[in-house]
Amino acid sequence: MARRRGAGLLGTVAVSTIDMRLAALGLVLPGPYPPHDPLDALVVHGGRARTSGQLPRDHDGRLVHPGVLGAGLSVDDGAEAARWCALNALSVLRAGLGSLDRVSRVLTVLGFVASAPGFEQQPAVVDGASTLLHDVFREAGRHSRSAIGVAALPRGGAVEIEVEVALAD
Question: What is the CA radius of gyration of the chain?
Answer without folding.
Answer: 16
